[in-house]
Structures are given as structure tokens and as C-alpha cells.
Amino acid sequence: NPSMSRQSGKSSLLYLCSQHIKTNQTLSISLSPLNKSGGESLTCKFFQELVNILMDYIFKSNERSSKILDFHHPHQLKEGLEGFSLDLPDHPEPLEQILVDCRDTLKYGVKTGHPRFFNQLSSGLDLVGLAGQWLTSTANTNMFTYEVSPVFLLMEEVLLKKMQSIVGWCEEEGDGIFCPGGAVSNLYSLLVARYDFYPEVKTKGMCALPRLALFTSEHSHYSVRKAAAVLGMGSDSVQVVPCDERYPSPEGLFGLVPFYVNATAGTTVYGAFDPLTAIADVCDRHKLWLHVDAAWGGGLLMSRRHQGKLQGIERASSVTWNPHKLMGAPLQCSAILIKKRGLLQECNQLCAEYLFQSDKHYDISYDTGDKTIQCGRHVDVFKLWLMWKAKGSEGFGSQVNKCLENAEYLFKQLQRRADFKLVFESKPEHSNVCFWYLPPSLRGLPPGPDTNRRLHEVAPQIKAKMMEEGTTLIGYQPLGSNVNFFRCVFSNPATQHEDVDFLLEEIARLGSNL
Ligand code: ABU
Predict the structure, then answer these.
(1) How far apart are the CA of 354 and the centre of ligand 1, in A?
(2) If DSSP codes are grouped into helix, strand and coil, which group holds residue 477?
(3) What is the pLDDT of residues 235-257, one digit of tens each?
(4) How far is residue 287's CA from residue 271's CA, in Å, rounded to a whole number?
(5) Which residues carry this modification: N6-(pyridoxal phosphate)lysine (predicted)?
(6) Most informative mutation of 110, 117, 122 for ligand 1 (most atoms within 8 A of CB)
(7) Domains in the chain, please, with CATH?
(8) Which residue is closest in CA terms to ligand 1's atom 7?
(9) Residue nearest to ligand 1 atom 1, measured at CA
(10) Of 20, 161, 217, 297, whose CB count within 10 A is highest?
(11) What is the pLDDT of residues 420-461, one digit of tens each?
(12) Alpha-carbon distance 113 to 248, whole Å?
């Protein structure tokens, strides 16, 4: 019975566990249970109980009737709820309490695997991926050297090669690394591009370089500007290319010293695609580094649908691709692919001798840690490798298609309803669908600043109620001249048409008296 409570209802395993603790008064959580007499049995019981808690959470995340979140304000969580305390004790707490803490942590969190969670580009809970995550944590090793991560480093190589071949690079091309998220992948691309043009930057810094400019579209991810700031180029060095409705115009790329262009394959809000081939032509002509931020759109490479949107990606010098988004790998799993082999190593290596000894007895090219700007690196590859084994490339394709079909279904439902309005009348290019809800009081009003001002307030009010009720979750934002609108994104293959119907009905219910 995993639904134990602090006050009552201990499961039999938990009871046994707590009895064991009582008879071993010296047991401390700072010591591994395995180190105690009878420790194996206690360890098994502890983990069996933990698995019960996790399974209960997973099953609840899949029950449509269960809440996605039990919302509390920060001060309420800090004050402590029903015995759940964030405070750190001076003395060890019993394992029983540790299990209760695990359960409560999940209770007050957000079930991002719920089929009605539409808030983020990453959602769902892939069970094989989860198993991979658990194995990774059990192995608890570091990706810097082959001597401590032989298998995981070879898996990383296999995955990077596979992804590079899917992008369309040939056997002789391609390098890369898994790193913490799309923003860091984008940062790597800018770092390596700058080094490629100006290798002296590594030792002399920015004062040895001319003032650099880079280009990105106004709808691209904010991490491009952040990377320019972090790398000492300054966010003002980013030239923001205006978009024409959804597309940046290649003609916008003019007037400044060419260096780097970020093209987005699947923008965060609209799911739009920059015209990669046209941008690659401009980059070729002016010898610019072309980076494609396919953090969100990269997953489409696994499907036959919408693949044309990614035409030209093979001409990129670097690509960001997040398998933790559309491909559903558990967070985090993000790759930066660099076409020119060796550049990543040259750009970042400092050859720390305590770690990257040159006289090791194995092929030290697998000590990839010096390619990175980190030292220690989490193993993000195993879960993806395991998922790929379990699904095959075709399985990823079907999963992505399911998300795209859901987006088309939502689009069609919105087209036929008078209480909603689409931000774009054309079919979605990705699984993003953007729309306004029009409460009865706003229907039929003439367009204009006053209507817009009132419409701007609708989505935040509905979202606040949605969070309080916890039945579904969707994001909203303004963008350019568009006042606050909802953005629905599909990346959880567990979502069905009934969940899409529910979302619309729920928004209409929560917004009916606005
Ligand atoms: N690059 C993070 C995207 C955030 C989101 O899920 O909307």
C-alpha cells in the first residue's frame, strides 16, 4: 500500500522497515543500510517501498482524473504542510520519515508526465528512459574520462554519430558532446565558432578581436543573446533579424561584420522554421558560421512528416538537438553537434594532468572531458541509448507523428469553435498550436487597443485558476504585437484526442465568466 500517510496506514514493508530501525537504534541515514547487520534485507525493503511510492506516482500521473498539481504558494511550502518540512535536521531521521519525505516531495510537485500537461516543450515520462535514468544514478559516474565511464563514453560516440548521420553529415564529419540543455548547446556553438574564426581568443581574450556581430531572428531562443553576453561579446552584438509573420527574411542579414548566424528549426513559441537553405546560401556567400538551433525541431528528423522544414540543416556548421523535448527522453538530454572534427577539443582543452594524463595505456581520445567547459559531466546518454534500443528509430518516428497528429486535431477543433481564435490560420508546422480564448464578454467586440487590452488579461486569469484547480496545464505569453495567447505544445505520446477536448472545455469553463 504505497498510499501511506504520516499519521497512519503504514504499509507492511514500511512497518517492517521501521521495526528494523527500532531494533537497530544506531542506524543512521548517513551510513548506508548495507553496512549494517541485516543490511541487505533492510536495503531491499527500503527500495521496495521507494519503488511503491514511485509506481504509485507513475500510475497517478497516467490517471486522467488525478490532478496534475496540488498548488501551494512558496510561503505555504516553506511553512510546512501536513508535516512536510523543508528544514534540514541536525540529527538523522529514520528511514520511514525519509520515505514519507520522498512521497511528499512528489505530492507537492507537478506531474509533467500527465497526458493533460501541455505547459512545456518537454513532457511525458518514458518508462524505458526512466529505467535508464535510474541505472545512470546507480552507476553514479562521471563522463570526463574513459577510465571511469568506458561504456557510457562509447554510447555517447554511437549516439552522436547516429544523430550526425540523421542530420545528413558524412562519415568523415562530425563531433559533439551531450551537455546541460539547449541553451548550453547554443553557447557551445558560439564559443566554437568564435574560436574557429579567431583562435587567439582562447589565450588573449576579446581585446585581441574586432567587434563581432552575430545574427538571429526575433523569434529565436533568448539563449543566443545570453550566450553572447556570457562569452564577453555583449548582447548588443546580436543583430535581431525581423520576422515576416513567421519567417525571418534573409534580406535582413546585412550591414555588419559577418561571423555567425543562428537559424531556428522550431521556434519555442510558434514552432516556426527559418528557411534553412536560403540562410545557408547567405552564410556560404559571406563565409559565416551557420548554427541551427533544432532543440525543438530536431525531433522531426525522426519522422517523415514535416521533414522538408529541416531541409538545409546538413549545411550547418553546428546543430543543437534536444532529445528531451520531442523525442521524450527524460530531462536532461541535449546534444551540440559540430561539423568540423577536433574543433571542440582545440577550443576547450587545457590538459589538466591529474585527469587527462597523456601516458595512459588506452586510446585517450576517449577522455572527452577536455572538450567541454565543465569538468565533471553527468551521464545523459544512457537513457537515450536505451530508449533507442527499445523503440528503434521507427518507434521515435511514430511517437513524433502522434504528437503532430494531436496538434492537427487541436487546430481543427479550434477552427470550428467560435469561442476560440487561432493566432495563425494556417496548419501548424510543428506541434505548437497558439490561440486565444474569447470569453462571452469579448465576443463580437471590434478589434482595437481596448479589446486587446482586455484580451491580454484573459489567459493569465485562466492560467491562475487552472493552477489552483490542477486539472490541466498550458502556457501563455505575448509575442510581438500579439497580446497574451495560449501556446499548446505536444511532446507526450500518451496524450489522446480526449485530452485535447478536455483542455478546450476546461479553458472555456474557467474563462466563462471573465
Ligand atoms: N528551451 C526551453 C523551452 C522552454 C519550454 O518548454 O517552453
Answers:
(1) 38
(2) strand
(3) 989 999 888 744 444 454 455 66
(4) 28
(5) 325
(6) 122
(7) 140-383 (3.40.640.10)
(8) 120
(9) 182
(10) 297
(11) 999 999 999 999 999 999 999 999 899 999 999 999 999 999
(12) 34
Residue 121 CA, ligand 1 centroid: distance in Å: 5
User: Which pLDDT score, from 0 to 100, does residue 177 have?
Assistant: 98
- Residue among 119, 120, 270, 332 to mutate when testing ligand 1 (max atoms within 8 A of CB): 120
Contact 196, 458 (CB under 8 A): no
Q: Which of 110, 112, 226, 268 to mutate to test ligand 1, by most ligand atoms within 8 A of the CB atom?
A: 268
Contact present, 493 and 327 (Cβ < 8 Å) = no
- The whole model's pTM is what? 0.91
Residue 16 pLDDT > 70: no
How many residues are recorded in the chain? 514
Ligand 1 atom closest to residue 221's alpha carbon, by position in its atom list: 1
Q: Is 297 in the pocket of ligand 1 (CB under 6 A)?
A: no
Q: Are 219 and 269 in contact (CB under 8 A)?
A: yes
Place of cell 559565416: 288
What confidence score (pLDDT) does residue 254 get?
57
Task: Report pLDDT digits (tens) over 61-90.
Answer: 999 999 999 999 999 999 988 889 999 999
Burial 334-354 (b: 16+ CB within 10 A, else e): bbbbbbbeebbeebbeeeeee
pLDDT-derived band at 305 (thresholds 50, 70, 90) equals: confident
